[in-house]
Design brief:
40% of the residues lie in helices and 26% in strands. The protein has helices at 36-49, 78-92, 124-136, 152-156, 196-218, 231-237, 257-264, 278-281, 283-358, 364-371, 414-427; strands at residues 3-9, 12-18, 23-28, 56-61, 67-73, 99-105, 115-123, 140-146, 165-172, 175-182, 187-193, 225-229, 247-250, 381-392, 398-407, 433-437, 459-466. Mean pLDDT is 86; it is low at 445-455.
């Protein structure tokens, strides 16, 4: 992803949209900037007026506003080392005010003994002011590094053995950048020379020898191989080849101003070499992370809402299904009751048929007529006898009705005779039950008629039930 890269080298301020591979769009301030107080408005102007794109800003510089130190600590873990180096920087006081710093170990091959670190310090107030300018533009300040770290790609291109310490001298705008390092990309120390053309070859070579002496004394590394990168450095150092056993070679990568802009974008904002504290460099990432978490939680909330709604809908649907099933069960139960009633009626009908079939040899009517022989007294006139099946009672028992009609001879009391006939019926083998007879209140047929319809005194009737 492209970022906004700002280089402030030898007073020249450049800004570009860059990636580690190329510079997409760049611009340059029209004036040289020497002090931090002058750099801040120029930075604000470039961020405001130039057509660079991106949301993150990285700054690299060789200005004295950053100061390289070599410090040693006893063997310790990363957290303890950071605390120890903070005390060393505070004690060294590279600036008259509190400082921030980035660092990297320069002797990782040493398994025991003191651990040496290259520390780069910068005033905290200047860092905070840069952060204010950048954030005012709605951008994130993610990196602040020494420009020398941009030359790592050149170091890695050198053909020297990975453990050999060499000196790389590269063009840096109008000056020279000196980097003591290894071909594995490790930077052990760096210095910058201003206005190299004004110093002349002799002045530049004298400064080079001072750097070599520093490496021998402070880093315990005797450097005999120097690589140059860029037209100016190659021209100014060619006279040193062979002197004091020094060997001068040209690097395969030619350094130009765009290299500093491209290379600085490859450095990670989480690197311990970053001078910015995590509270600044990771602020944008944490904000985006919080935004992502909030969006995720919002999505979860929306999903939960729809899921809950769907569950409620399913619940209502299930309740409706249960209610419908209840209605269906009730309907089925009614059908079962009706089926049972139908079955009972069928059973009753079958039982009736069975009874009728069993009594086929001895008809019921014949039996009833024969039983009446012992019920009707002699001399009593019987005009009519009717027998019919009334209904099927409980347990499939058939119930018959018997009605007899006749005339009592003259001279005999009607009602006592009728009462005696009723009692005889009830005591008979058929166990008849008299339901109505002549003399009962509002009894139907109290005045029976003969078939021809003429009335006759002394008429009677009795109706009984046989179960």
């Amino acid at each position: 992803m492209a970022v906004i890269a700002v280089s402030w080298i030898q007073g020249v301020v450049r800004i570009a949209t860059a990636t580690p591979g190329k510079v997409l769009r760049s611009s340059e301030a029209g004036t040289l900037v020497s002090s931090p107080a002058d750099f801040l408005p120029i930075l604000n102007q470039l961020l405001t007026t130039t057509r660079v794109s991106g949301t993150e800003v990285i700054v690299c510089t060789d200005n004295p506003v950053i100061n390289p130190l070599v410090e040693e600590t006893p063997p310790a873990n990363a957290k303890v080392v950071a605390n120890l180096l903070a005390r060393r920087v505070e004690k060294a006081k590279p600036f008259p005010e509190p400082s921030l710093f980035g660092y990297a170990r320069v002797n990782p091959e040493a398994k025991s003994g003191p651990q040496a670190y290259l520390v780069t310090a910068s005033p905290k107030r200047f860092v905070d002011e840069m952060d204010t300018v950048i954030t005012a533009q709605g951008l994130d300040f993610i990196g602040y590094y020494p420009a020398a770290l941009s030359l790592r790609s050149v170091l890695r291109s050198l053909p020297s053995p990975g453990e050999q310490v060499v000196l790389l001298v590269a063009d840096a705008e109008t000056g020279l950048m000196q980097v003591i390092g290894r071909s594995n990309g490790q930077v052990l120390f760096y210095r910058t020379l201003g206005t190299s053309e004004g110093r002349g070859a002799e002045g530049v070579q004298r400064e080079i020898r001072r750097t070599l002496l520093f490496a021998e004394q402070k880093l315990n590394a005797k450097v005999s191989t120097i690589y140059t990168s860029g037209t100016s450095s190659t021209t100014l150092l060619q006279g040193m080849s062979g002197a004091d056993g020094l060997q001068i070679f040209s690097a395969s990568i030619n350094v130009d101003p765009s290299l500093y802009l491209r290379a600085i974008t490859a450095l990670k904002s989480t690197s311990i070499e970053n001078i910015l504290p995590a509270a600044i460099s990771q602020r944008g990432k944490r904000r985006r992370m919080r935004l992502g978490i909030n969006l995720f939680l919002g999505a979860v909330l929306i999903f939960s809402f729809f899921d809950t709604t769907q569950v409620q809908y399913k619940k209502i649907s299930l309740n409706n299904d249960i209610r419908n099933l209840g209605d269906q069960i009730a309907a089925r139960q009614q059908e079962v009751v009706k089926a049972r009633e139908d079955l009972q009626a069928l059973s009753t009908r079958q039982e009736t048929i069975r009874i009728l079939e069993e009594e086929a040899d001895s008809p019921v009517v014949e039996s009833i007529y024969r039983s009446l022989d012992g019920v009707i007294p002699s001399g009593l006139v019987l005009d009519r006898c009717m027998v019919w099946l009334d209904k099927i009672g409980p347990g499939g028992r058939a119930e018959y009705l018997v009605q007899i009609e006749g005339t009592v001879p003259e001279g005999k009391a009607l009602l006592p005779l009728i009462a005696k006939i009723g009692e005889t019926m009830e005591r008979s083998g058929l166990k008849m039950t008299v339901e109505a007879k002549t003399g009962d209140a509002a009894a139907p047929g109290a005045d029976p008629k003969k078939p021809e319809g003429s009335r006759k005194s002394g008429g009677y009737f009795i109706r009984a039930r046989i179960r």
